[in-house]
Structures are given as structure tokens and as C-alpha cells.
Amino acid sequence: xxxxFDGNTVLEQRFEPRYKARLAIYYGSDYQSVMRxxxxxxxxxxxxxxxxxxxxxxxxxFVKFMLPTKNTPITCTSKVAxxxxxxxxxxxxxxxxxxxxxxxxxxxxxxxxxxxxYEGGLEPEW
Length: 126
What we know:
The protein is mainly beta and 126 residues long. It has a single domain (2-125), classed as Thrombin, subunit H, CATH 2.40.10. The protein has one helix at residues 107-119; strands spanning 2-6, 9-14, 18-20, 24-28, 35-42, 46-50, 60-65, 74-84, 97-102, 124-125. The strands form two sheets. The protein has a six-stranded antiparallel beta barrel with strand order 4-5-6-9-8-7. A hairpin with a 6-residue loop joins strand 4 and strand 5.
């Protein structure tokens, strides 16, 4: 486990490193109001979406994206684990947006993400 600190405060605990990945992400609180933005990074546990209108923390969202190595979309539900906004600036160097934690990723989709990360030569980003 890796801990991210800001002075003396633990901001975030990560079990997996994130990797730089710019993918189109479709998401929303229901299937009728779909938004599209881009990921900044991802891991097998979640991803960060750059958006000027992040949802509040703990909001459940559905997520859909395509991996360049796969012909079928990855879909799952997720939870907004944290937000980075101008007024809170939790993570310097990151844009405004939200970090999502995957909630119900199937094993085959998890393997597809892992294969994309490790075989795609993505650069780690802690």
C-alpha cells in the first residue's frame, strides 16, 4: 500500500499504482445523462477523469470506456473516491476532476485492464 501525504496528513491510500492513460470515458449517474471526458490515469482499481464539474465524493456512477486493445467496451459502476478542485487542490499538478474507484469490475474486464497497462508500456504515475 502506498500513502500520499500533504505535510502531515494522509490524503489518499493506494493499493495499486496509477498509469498515465488518456481514454475517452463515458459516465453518468443514470443511463440517460451520459457525459464524456478523458482519463488522466488509471489502474485496475479505478481512474481519474479530468472534468470541470466533478460529482460529489461517494456518488455512484456508471462508467464505460474502450481499451485500444479490446473490441468490446469496459462497463462497471464506480464511486467518486475523491475530487480535485481549485478550492481544495488535493493533488498538485493534477487538473480539476475526480478519482473513481471501480465497484463491480468483472474478472475478465480486470484482466483486460491489467493487460492494457502492462503490455501497453504505460508510464507509472504515483
